[in-house]
């Protein structure tokens, strides 16, 4: 019965993984959320954007949820290329021959 409960919970979380999200349970005794990648602590109920472009939330019970703060282009014209702007947390899509000319984006994943 316990295995069934775990399987149902994992299936319920599956859409979050496809959306570029992850979830971390609070460690016993923690009164803040710890974002391991940069070692920062965040208060219960707070929301923040990380240096690696994730939008995070520290829930009332100390659990933490983070989702990528950008979408990744998956379809755009062949004569174009994409480049990630870490400072703006977004992809720019532009002509391969002229970086100043933006290209249309027809599909994306994430966010």
Automatic annotation (TrEMBL):
Keywords: Disulfide bond, Secreted, Signal
UniProt-annotated location(s): Secreted
One Gene Ontology cellular component: extracellular region
Signal peptide residues on this chain, from the entry's feature table: 1-19
Domain of life: Eukaryota
TM helices/strands, residue ranges: none
Pfam families (UniProt xref): PSP94
The UniProt record lists the keyword Nucleus: no
Principal location: secreted
Protein family: Belongs to the beta-microseminoprotein family.
Name the record gives this protein: Beta-microseminoprotein
Native species: Oncorhynchus kisutch (Coho salmon)
């Amino acid at each position: 019965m316990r295995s069934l409960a775990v399987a149902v919970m994992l299936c319920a979380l599956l859409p979050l993984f496809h959306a570029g999200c992850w979830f971390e349970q609070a460690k016993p005794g923690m009164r803040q959320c710890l974002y391991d990648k940069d070692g920062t602590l965040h208060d219960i109920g707070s929301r923040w954007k990380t240096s690696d472009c994730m939008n995070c939330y520290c829930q009332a019970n100390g659990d933490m949820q983070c989702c990528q703060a950008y979408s990744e282009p998956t379809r755009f014209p062949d004569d174009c290329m994409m480049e990630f702007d870490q400072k703006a947390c977004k992809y720019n899509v532009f002509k391969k021959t002229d970086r100043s000319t933006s290209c249309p984006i027809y599909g994306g994943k994430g966010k």
